[in-house]
Design a protein that fits this description.
357 residues, Rossmann fold, three-stranded antiparallel sheet, 20% strand, binds nicotinamide-adenine-dinucleotide
């Protein structure tokens, strides 16, 4: 049984990942370290709350002493690092917390992992840089180093014009404080592989959608506002494009990269589902018109759409080339947007059936 530290497991993606991973792999105990910021919701983990191979710990990835304590106490043998401040709009009004959590927090977690895994009881030898093999202090024992998997975003690549896709080799050009903080953390992870030989992998994924997402994000906002009869706000002309990835497809991708990805490599994960924000709203409104018609049959949900002032520095288009993870690790998105969005709307209809909090 190996203990894996999942950071930020009470957030949107983490709370989808933990039940999936517990079920899929019987040989891991998952230690979920989460600060429970406004973005967290432990309700989303109630299905695993009493699972024998799951433990929740409230704590801050920036708190070095506490992170060291957890590594020692639970002999952590792998990290999957989701914890972050993740909402671009918040990063524009309050960038400080993004630098603290995403940059310093990633550094702290990584540095503690490096020191825990590679400085005791094994001595670091320059010759193993780029591999995941160590030589022990008292012999030539080869061991596979524990892995540090950093979850990142396609936003680090900046914005695309009408054509082209982000590849793993696309130069970084982050435009928001959020994407800049994620880009910085990606670089720190890279440096710990190149300098110290830490067994790292990084995944850069596109916009996730699915169950358990915080109300502040686009898709839950559309559904909630529509159901409440409030206006549905769309930034600018609504033509910004994102490449949507069903969250459980993302979880499968993380699982594959964690287990089979090459040390020191990065992998893009995307669903090949480019849609404008307007297309997203249109689709959701159409599904709601069918599943939960408005009180008067003449009223359509689309009538609630309201265009609001654009986000500052709003990237125009993201699109992912996922051919590396597809070819090397045989990953494919199971869900296309048409099927994934129906499941998603159904989940939120169920969530809001008890009222709006
Ligand atoms: N959601 C997306 O569409 C998307 C796309 C690409 C990449 N990502 C990345 O995936 C990861 C997870 O995203 P998400 O949407 O689940 O985010 P989220 O905001 O829903 O959840 C983040 C979680 O991290 C926790 N957290 C925040 N600061 C912490 C700290 N200092 N110490 C410990 N825990 C802390 C929060 O309490 C929360 O539970 C992030 O790294 C994000 O950058 C997300």
């Amino acid at each position: 049984m190996k203990n894996i530290l999942i950071s930020g497991g009470a957030g949107f993606i983490g709370s989808n990942f933990i039940p999936y991973f517990l079920e899929k792999h019987q040989n891991y105990k998952l230690i979920n370290l989460d600060l429970l910021t406004y973005a967290a919701n432990l309700e989303n983990l109630k299905e695993v709350k009493n699972h024998s191979r799951y433990k929740f710990i409230k704590g801050d990835i920036c708190n070095r002493e506490f992170v060291e304590f957890i590594f020692n106490e639970y002999n952590i043998e792998g990290v999957i690092h989701f914890a972050a401040e993740s909402h671009v709009d918040n990063s524009i009004t309050n960038p400080d917390i993004f630098m603290r959590t995403n940059v310093n927090g990633t550094f702290t977690l990584l540095d503690v992992a490096y020191k825990h895994w590679m400085q005791k009881p094994f001595t670091y030898k320059e010759s193993f840089i780029g591999t995941d093999v160590l030589t022990s202090a008292n012999g030539e024992v080869k061991v596979s180093l524990p892995r540090f998997h950093h979850i990142s975003t396609d936003e680090v690549y900046g914005t695309l014009g009408e054509t082209g896709l982000f590849k793993e080799t696309t130069p970084y050009a982050p435009n928001s404080p959020y994407s800049a903080s994620k880009a910085a953390s990606d670089m720190i992870v890279r440096s710990y592989h190149e300098t110290y030989g830490v067994n790292t992998v990084v995944t850069n994924c596109s916009n996730n959608y699915g169950a358990k997402q915080h109300d502040e994000k686009l898709i839950p906002t559309i559904i909630r506002n529509a159901l409440k009869g409030d206006s549905i706000p769309i930034y600018g002309d609504g033509k910004n494009i994102r490449d949507w990835l069903y969250v459980l497809d993302h979880c499968r991708g993380v699982d594959l990269v964690y287990h089979k990805g090459k040390s020191g490599e990065t992998y893009n994960i995307g669903g090949k589902n480019e849609r404008t924000n307007l297309q997203i709203v249109d689709k959701i409104c159409t599904i709601l018109d069918e599943k939960m018609p408005r009180s008067s049959q003449h009223l359509k949900y689309k009538e609630l759409i309201t265009f609001v002032e654009d986000r500052v520095g709003h990237d125009r288009r993201y699109g992912i080339d996922a051919s590396k993870i597809e070819k090397e690790l045989s990953w494919r998105a199971d869900e296309d947007f048409e099927s994934g969005i129906v499941k998603t709307v159904e989940w939120y209809l169920n969530k809001y059936s008890g009222g709006f909090k």
